[in-house]
Amino acid sequence: VLPGEAVRGKSCNFRAGLGFNLMRMNAVAAGSDAELMLRVKEGDERSFADLLARYRDPVVNYLYRMVQNAGVAEELAQDVFLRVYRARENYAPSAKFTTWLYCIATNVALNHLRDGRLAKYSTPIDDPESDVGRELRTTDPNVEERLVAQSQGWEIRKAVMALPEKQRVAVLLHKYQELDYRQIAAALKCSESAVKSLLFRAYESLRGQLSHLAGGRS
Amino acid sequence: MKCKEFERYALAYMDGTLARAESDRVERHMAGCSSCAERARGFAGVSRMLDAWEPIRPSASFNARLQQRMLEQPAQSWWERLAMHLGLLPVWRPAAASAVLAVMLFAVLVAQYVPTSPEMISQQGEAPQNIVVTPDTSDELALYQEMSVLENWEMLSNFEVLQELETASQ
């Protein structure tokens, strides 16, 4: 069990067994994320900076869409990269780096959502001082059009937030992070078949909740 | 293809990741099932709406803050590295904490335990020399001079007896 990933009895353990050396050679030859991570393991801090440059924005945005608060998302993303860094000595490229990374990010996000940690950063998505509220005081001629778009955006975010946790993870990893079913299954510790079912139910739910918006967008 | 089977293929069909044969089967089903065709259109609409959710940009200080936190990480001790290598650490930590707590509780219990050996009882049982025993109180006093009886808290809490002892000594 790697130190950074254990979250409430669960872990993202993709350690290799007998084929470690072969996998290492493949990773290095491919010039992949795994190769960078192996260099980090050997003490190369620049490779960690490269990984951070590659995945900082996607991880922050995944967490932002999970918790729907930019400040919290940044804090959680910092936790994720710290865990990756701390786990460097035990890293083995037995699975795609992104699977491992989003498994950690998912655990961090779900733990946050379950225990309400970092509440000091939280502001509700319908905060009156949000962008919509501020926009009302502007004199921009396109303000009405933008208000409609913002209102629809708010409804979409609310609908996603209303999904059960696993459905939300599945939708976000599938839609925005472009993970395949196998990777999503690894992050959620379930079968690929279960992921397909989660996605179908999530889209059914979103279709029902957002049907009133569909006419104007399609 | 039945509607239940369509559920398994719907998202993959939208993603374009189905094999040609499966994709054809999905399309044939939708051509004959207006409900599933409507679902597929709805899913496509949801997907377009989700596209409109703009990403955010992390703050400029993100990397600097992360670097600071990385530098703050304490170096691991040799036993932590060993436990981590053996894959024990996540389990070991709470177990070790529980063991330490158990030892502390045991130590407190041992420290508070007062042994009542026969030697100690006989030492405590020597009667005070300045008590004068009168015939009418002798039986009762004999009872209370049996110090093992005074181990009983209910007896000790009977202050009348102490008053009688004072009276008898005068």
Computed CA radius of gyration of chain B, to the nearest angstrom: 43 Å
- Measure the end-to-end span of chain B: 110 Å
Strand content of chain B: under 5%
Number of strands of chain B: 0
Order of helices and strands of chain B: HHHHHHHHHH
Number of strands of chain A: 0
Count of runs of 4 or more consecutive helical residues of chain B: 10
Helix fraction of chain A, binned, reads 55-70%
Helical fraction of chain B: over 70%
Shape of chain B: elongated
Q: N-to-C terminal Cα separation of chain A, in Å? A: 47 Å
User: How is the biggest beta sheet of chain A arranged?
Assistant: none
Largest interface: A-B, 49 and 37 residues
Poorly predicted regions of chain B are none
Kindly provide the radius of gyration of chain A, computed on alpha-carbon positions and rounded to a whole number of angstroms: 20 Å
- What is the global morphology of chain A? globular
Would you tell me the overall average pLDDT of chain A? Answer: 79
Give the oligomer, counting copies of the same chain as homo and different chains as hetero.
Answer: heterodimer
Give me the secondary-structure category of chain B. Answer: mainly alpha
Number of helical segments of chain A? 11
Main sheet characteristics of chain B: none
Describe this structure in words.
The complex is a heterodimer of chains A (218) and B (170). With 218 residues, chain A is mostly helical. Helices cover 67% and strands 0% of the residues of chain A. Chain A has helices spanning 20-30, 33-41, 45-67, 70-86, 97-115, 131-135, 143-161, 165-175, 181-188, 192-209, 211-217. In chain A, helix 2 (33-41) packs across helix 3, helix 3 (45-67) runs antiparallel to helix 4 (70-86) and helix 9 crosses helix 10 (192-209). The longest helix of chain A is centred in the N-terminal third of the chain and has 23 residues, at 45-67. Chain A is globular. With 170 residues, chain B is mainly alpha-helical. Chain B is 71% helix and 0% strand. Chain B is built from 10 helices and no strands. Chain B has helices at residues 3-15, 20-32, 34-51, 62-72, 78-85, 89-112, 118-124, 135-145, 153-156, 159-169. The interface between A and B is large, with 49 and 37 residues.
